[in-house]
Structure formats: structure tokens, C-alpha cells
Specification:
The complex is a heterodimer of chains A (about 575) and B (about 575). With about 575 residues, chain A is an alpha/beta fold. Chain A contains 19 helices and 12 strands. Chain A has 3 domains: about 1-160 and about 305-325, ABC transporter type 1, transmembrane domain (ABC transporter transmembrane region fold); about 160-275; about 340-415 and about 540-580, 3-Layer(aba) Sandwich (Rossmann fold), CATH 3.40.50.300. Chain A starts with a helix and ends with a helix. The mean pLDDT of chain A is about 85. Chain B contains 20 helices and 10 strands. In chain B, strand 9 (about 540-545) and strand 10 form a beta hairpin. Classes of the chains: A alpha/beta (about 575), B alpha/beta (about 575).
Chain lengths: ~575, ~575
Amino acid sequence: MKNNTFSKMLKLLKPKRKSLIIIFILAVIINIGEVVKPYIIKIVIDDYLSLKIWEKAGMTIGILGAIYIGIVLLGSILDFIITTATSMIGEEILYNIRNKLFKYSMKSNILFHDKTPSGTLFVRTTSDVEDISNFFKDVVTTFAKDIIMIIALLTMMFTIDYRLALVCLGLIPFVIITTYLTNKISKKVREYSKKVKTNLNIFMAESIYGVKLIKLFNKQRIKEKEYSKICDEFYKSRMPIAITEGLIVAFMVIFENLGVSLIVWICINNLFSISLDVGVIYMFITYLKQIFAPIQRIVENFEIIQEAIISVDKIFNILEKDEYIEDFDTGIIPKKIEGKIEFKHVWFAYKNNEWVLKDVSFTINPGESIAIVGRTGSGKTTIINLINRFYDIQKGEILIDGINIKDINLKFLRQNIGIVLQEPFIFANYIEENIKMNQKITDDEVDLAINLASADLFVNSLPKGKKEIAHERGESFSAGEKQLIAYARIFAKNPAIFILDEATANIDTKNEELIQKSVDKISKEKTSIFIAHRLSTIVNVDKIIVLSHGKIIEQGSHNELLKIPNGYYYKLYNSYYQNLSV
Amino acid sequence: MKKVILEALKKYRVKILLGIIFIGLNTYLLTIPPLIIGEIVDMLYNVEQNKQDIINSTYYLIGVCIILLVVRLIWKYFFASTQRGFEKEVRKSLFKRFLRLKPKELINIKNGEIMSYFVKDCTEMRLFLDKILSQGTRIVFTFIITIFQMAKGVNIFLTLAVLFPIFVAIILVIKIKKYVEESFRKSQTLFTDMSEFIQESNDGIKTLKAYSCEDAQIKKFVKKNKKVYESDNTVDIFSNLLKLSLDICFGICYAISLLLGSRLVLDGNITVGELITFNGYIALFVNPVAWLPQLISRSKRAKISFNRLQKLYTLETEKYSKNEPKNIIKLKGDISIKNVSFNYPGSIENSLEDINIEIKHGQTIGIIGTLGSGKTTLMNLLTRLFNIHHGQILIDGYDIKELPLEVLRKNICYITQDNFMFSSSIKDNISLFDEDYEDSEIKESTKKAIVYEDIKEMKHGINTIIEENGTDLSGGQRQRVALSRAFLRDRNILIFDDTFSSLDNNTSEEIISNVKKLAKGKTCIIISNKVSDVMFSNQIVVLNDGKVEEIGTNEELLENDGMYKKFYEHQSKK
């Protein structure tokens, strides 16, 4: 599993193979420079300063100093180039993953969206992608460089004196273990503290939303005490973090100087008969300092790698499933849709064998209007989700103008069906754009649509009219106003088939009348289906279908159905009246 | 705000002082290892003579490192507890302030903004304190102590020569950091914009699909994504540039020390060991130089946050007695509303105009009207969530302005329409964290609110924890839990603000009949836009656009052929 994921990550890098090889070569050059710098100082100390000379065999300290500066400049600039290049590669990969994910979420069907809450998708496209970003920025950029650095340093150490090199090598496990352990502890305390922090924030958010209740019931003091308690807890949870952070740095200083002391001990006691060049000792001390940082970084990076692997897994889990992707390219494109709809023995289940619709058959002729009524859960909304193929049925056929909708081009099909959802979704964009919905529609047509939907009064009452920008999810508008926008939207589209899921939410009387007007217009002219909650709508349509537990139990006109004594519709109709006259 | 900060700092002044002392010690101790190593190097030229001294020096070296570990932990502890404690104090004070704010001040501030005061601004203030304490002091100490050690211990000339590139580094780093910050902010804005777009696209997927907007939406996304990509690259480049300038400047430092130092060694001014010590000192400057720009940008952010928090302290608060008042008088519940007019701050139009209503205790009155007719506003005035500007409201003859706020609210049980739930147990949500109520009393109240059976079916009964924003309860259940609050408390004035709307007919009938029982001998106000909720009241007030349109009993109003009758007819047709 993990290996598999890792190879997927490498696959992401594959198109960048050439750049990565160049980066790798440059990294080798930089690290050789890093290793050579202390060596130059060693030469200066041993070959010049110890002998008290400035010049030897035509080479002066001045020239060596110039070489040193040259290495610094070259190394720094190359380092700048490769870090920038790797992070750019990383950003590009992220850019592509984000595009792929978003494309997937748009092209996938509703079934996928039902299974994947929008919150999850959001996390995938943002924070999971971010984890991968950290992987590229922190790991790929430094990991290779660090490894090369360690190899270069060890090689240098072993060439100069393998015995001293072994001493340094002996310290490395301590560095690794200490870093690993402190990381582990610090991760635990961090996680706990994060939990407390979440509680703190939830408490805070709640107090803000519930401030009226707190005031009305005089609970300020209790809430203050509670808050104070969580604050204290949070305070305490943070303390161990500071301590562990302090520990790791201090330990590294100890290891470093322990190494220095060891080298000095070995040399002065003449163990292993090691020669005593001062410069060599200095160089080893410097190398020792240089080797700690990359080792620590590699240990720390393991965590980032793990997180990135998990995130990559999650993302590929989505991207690799093509069974959810909708096909917009194939299918019949008829010249025109007349608007005849037939359901022939339709069976449908969201989940295996939990039938929501059972053997449903009905016909709507072009221009006819029908209302579907029934209790919550009877399958009303499901029917409209099937006509535009938000879901595909398991058994039976749905035909539009005699063609099975599975054979019609999906894009064409949806372009010819207009839906008003029960809770219309308003985008944080201009009202105008909310009505156009990316279609090529002129300004005049938008105005006309607003008029047809009787939304003109409402739109004109906004400070900027149709140029007003809606708040996120249309929060600035009431349920009724959102409905009006949705109706304008559908008039602007002017499809052959209208489907309207009426709102159950409380709509103020004024808007309700306006909405009623739109409804009447539509039902007179177009093939239209209403999931009806308003009696006036039901009474006016050509045909009523009564659904109960996924089955059609009655169908006919208002008057016909009322003639069935003790029939379902008869009872339903009367209960609407009873609502009020308690 | 200043006072709060000063007080919080005062509380931790001993810790701050000790922390500074120890951080100074820490900075001083850091200069010792290079010194010892230098000495060792010098002694190595004559091993036989100095053997014991060298060994002693290494012991000394390790000893210093261990002391350093202890010192480090001590100041870390002092400063961590100072900055976190400081944040804690500021948070507590802010929260107290927030809970006491007048609601009229709150309507102009978005909830998200208040949240960000606590989440973002408090943290900014803390981070600034943290940086000032742990980095600011170290920058100062490093520059004082290390430069002193360099000049005195090694060579003043060499010190001056090396300080030059270090100051160049400081200037460069501060300059570049400004660009890093700017580009980072820009990239954050773009990222937020993209995130919102993702969220919206997925939430509105059905609408998008119904209108075949997938491709257009993808195109828009790619554009936004590209912008994020580009701006992230800019941030990366600037950050890397920061590192580049540090690398080059410090590389030059070492080169100067190598060239000039060698000259000095050859001239006999310094020893090789001293030169090595000097190189060790240079390394001590790297971190402080890198910290400087961070400190500057932190101080800027902290200032912005300070100003934002300051705003909260300029807003008006409600008057509360310092301690819980002991004997609260029990009001009977005769309410008279006299010539009350009201407009919300910032709005020109009156929300209520010249309202006159008399309610005798023992009466139930219904208030009916459309959205925005002023029903809830009137209750906000009665509970003094907002203060009246014109007219007055008397309860038992007392002007409510004269009654202490807590006395007034302890006499009223106002069930609001939002059915707000805390993420705590159902029990806590009914008792509202009051521990004086027995479980049996709470259960009794749930029975009256017809939610007992529902709760019984839950795994932990009344101890079931309601998740954040109560999504695991249905709308109707939440409403009934909220209603239980009224049945639990013995208050003489009851207000039900649109609290039966999410209930089905049978349940709401049952609850209303329980409300009727509860309301016996009490004053009860029922607000609704449904005729059936109020028709049985002793008095029905019809509000329209902030004015009393009609007042009377159900029968009287039906005869009146006015607005009430229209409501009645409209609702019986629906």
C-alpha cells in the first residue's frame, strides 16, 4: 500500500525528471563546496599559520581567501537556484493536482457528491494538497541535499582520518534517537494541546452565537468561569511543548561539544597514534557541527513524509475512481425537445435494493403540467433527480420524446431541462451572473427573465440592482427572495421542460404571491413538473400524481381525484384545511 | 485595553525579569564554548606541556553545555508561562467584556469578527510578546555580549571589519522581508478566494450540473488556481532570496576573518586559537540577524491587532452588579407598554412606533404579524436587550430601566426563536448549566415539552451530548428541548417567540395545551405568524410595520374584518 503510494508520488515527479537530475548535480556541487570550505581553513592553519608564512609555493593566503569567497558566492547562488527550482516544481505539481481534483469534482456525478461531503472535498483540495506541498518544499528540496551533504562530509572525514571519522559516526545514533524521541513527545503534547484549543474555539464560537441566550438567562458568570477553566487548561497544555523544544536544542549543543572533547582526548592521548595537526582537529570540529543539522532534518522530515503519503493516498483514492465521471461527449443530440416525458416501470434505489421508487409509470405530454404530491420520503424529489440524470435508474426506462434519456447527450439533456431546487443555491457573485449561469444571455434577456419571474421589484430594491453581489450562499436574502432569483434563472434559460421543487420554508406573503404568479405562467405554457406544497399549485395543474412509499397510488386531475371517496388525495386535501381550523 | 495588557504583564513581572536574567546568562554562556575550543587549539601546539590543562578544558566545555541546558530550560519555562499566561489573562478579560456588551453594539459586528478577536488577535499579541522576550532580548544581548567578547578577547580591528557585512545583512534582510510579507499576504488572499470557490462549487453542484456549468466552472477555477500558483512562487523566491543574502553576507564574514585574521596571526597580534574562537563568535550572529525582520513584522501585526481589540473596549457594556444579587424580588407580571417607539442603531426607520399595550398578570396575549413587523423587537425591549429611547415599559409599576438588569431577566423566561444549543448534554441545555435543578425536575420539564420520549430513546438520555450546532437533533426536537427551559423554571413572565413553527400539528397542539396550564396565574406572551398559535389568547395584538394594527380577542378581531381576518383566511386556504 505504502510502496504503491510512494511510487505514485514519484510518478508525479516523472515529467520533471530532467530538471531533477540537474538539481541533483547542482546539489552535489554545492555540498562539495561546503565540505571544501573548512578544508581551506585547515590548509591555512596547518600549512601557513603554523609555519608562520603567508606564501608557499606561489600560493598565498590571499589567493586561498579569494577561493573561499568564490566558493561562498557560487554555493549561495547555486543553492538559491536549486531551492527556487524545486519549490517551483512543487508548486507546479500542486497546481496540477488541484486542477485535477477540481475537474474531477465537477465532472463526477451526484452519487459521488452524496458519498463525499463537500467539506471533505474542500479538505482534499486545500489542506491535503498543502501537505503534499510541504512534502515537496521541505523534503524533496532538502532531503536529497541533506543526504548528499552527509555522504560528502563522511567521505571527507574518512579520507582524512578514518578513526576520528568513526568517533563522529558513533555520535550520530544519539542525535537520531534524541531527535526522534523529542519529536515523538512533542507531537503527543502538541496533539493534546490542539484538542484543548479546538474546545476553546468551539466554546468561544458558541458563546458568540448564543450570547442572547446567555444574557436572557443571566449566565454570564457561569460562562466566564467555564471559559476561565478551559483557558487554564490550554495554558497548561502548552507548557510541555516549550520545554521539549528547549531540550532538543540544548541536547544538540551537548552532543556537539562531546564530540569535540572526544576528538581532543583521542588526539592528545595519542590513542591510535593519530598525528596532531591542529588544522585537522579544527576541520573535524567544523564537520561535526555541519553534520548534525541535516541528520536532524531528515529525522524530522519523516513525519512530513508520512503525512504527505496519507494525503496522496486520499487524493488518489478520489482521482482513480472513474466510475463516477459523467460522460458529456457521447449520445444523441436531437434537433429539438418537444417535452414529452414517459416513465416506464421505473425502479430506483440510492442504496442496494432499498427501493425508493417501485415500478413507477406515467406520461406527461408536451405542454402539460403535473403535480407530484405525497408525504416526506415518498420519493417525490427522487423523481426529478432522475429526469435530468443526476442518478441513473436500475430498472425500467425514462423516455423524453420517445428517446431513452440514457442515449441522449447528457449536456444537451440538462440544457433542455430547467430545475428550481427546493433550496435554491445562490453563488457569491452578481445577481446578474446568478441568473445567467454562464450561458450566453444578453442583458435584455436577463431583464426580461427578471420580469417574467416577477423578481423586478425585489431586484430593483437592491442598492445596485442586478449588479448587487450576493453574500456567500445568498445569506443576505430571504428564502422567498432566493426563490425569485431561481425563477429568474430558469426563465433566462427557457428550457423545454420545467421542474420545480417548491419550498416548504416559510415564505413571506408578499413574495409568495409573486412566486405564485411565476408558477402559473410556467404551468400554462410549458411541460412542467411540480413537487407541490402549495394547494393553489396543485389545483391548477393538468394532472396530479400521488406517491406513497415509492409507488403511484392515484393519478388524475384535481376533480377526478376528489371523487375517490376516502382516497389518499381526498384525505390529503382535507388535512390541508384542517391545519388551520383547530 | 492598555490597562488589561499592563495588568497582565504586571502579574508576570517576576517571571519576565527572571527570564531576562537567564536569557542574558544563556547568551553569555554561548560565547564560552568557542573560547574554550580556541584555547584548546592553542594548547594543542604544545601538547606535552598542556595535556592536563587540555583535559580540564574539555571537562569545562561539557560542564558549560550542561549548565546551558539547565539555563535554557529555565528561561524557556519563564517565558513560555509568561506569554501563555498573558494570552490567558487577555482572553479572559476580553471574554468578560464581550459577555457584558450591549446587544446594540453587537449587531454591527459580525460573529466571525468577534471570533477572530479571540482566535487571531489574541494570538498575535502573544506572539509579539513571545518574540520580544525570547528573540528581542537575545538580539540585544548577542550584540552587546558577543561584540564585547570579540573586541576584548580577540581583536577590535577584526571585529569592526566583520561587523560591516553583518550590518549589511541586517539591512538586506529587513528590506527583503518586507517583500516576503507582502507577497505572502497576497498569496493568502488568493488562496482564501480559491478555497471559497471550491467550497461553493461543491455545495452548489446540483445547480451547476442542472445548468451544465461544469466546464465554465473549471475554467474559472484554473484561472484562480494559476494565480495562487504564481503568487506562491513569488513568495518562495523572496524567501529564498532572504536565505541567499544571509548566506553571502556571512560567507563574506568568514572570508574576512580568514584573510585579515591570518594576517593578524602572522603579525603575532592574535593566536590561531583566537582566530578559531572568533569564527565561533560569528556563528552566534546568524540567528539574531535572521530574527530581526520577524520581530519587525510581528510588531506591525501586533499593533493592528491591538487596535482591533481596543475597539471592543470602547463599546458600551450593560451594567451588572459585581456579585450575584442575593434577594431578587419576584414580580407579579403586570406589564404596561406606554408610547414605545424604537429604531435600531444605524437605521433611520422606526422598527416600533408608538406601541401601547396593557397586560395584566394571569393573562395570555398573542402577538401576530408578518416578518419584520416588530414582534421580536418588542420582546428585545421588554428584556432590555435593547434600551428604549421613547416611551416606557412598566412591570408591576416599576420602570424596567430602574430595575437591576439581573432582577428583570430573572423574572422573565424568554424562549427565543433560534433554538440555540450548546455542545453539552441535553440536561445542561435545559438547566443552562444551573446545578440547582434535580434530574427528575428536568425530566418532568421534557415531558411537558413532549420531547421526553425522544430523549428516552437516545443512548444516554438527558445526558446525551448535543454535537456542535445541534445537528444530531431534528429542528422539531431542538425546539422542544428549548421549550423545556420554560417548563423547568418558575417565572411569572413567559415569552414564546415563534417556538412552535417546526412542530407538526399534533405535537404543537399538545405543547400549547401544556403552555396554557403553565401560564395559569402567570403572564404569558406568545409570538407567532400562525393564527392557530394565538387564537385562544385573552388578547391578540396584530403588529404591522412596527405599529399596533388591531387589538382584541379572536372573535372581536374576526368580526373586525381587518388584517387578522385576512391572515385567518389566507392560512385556512393554504
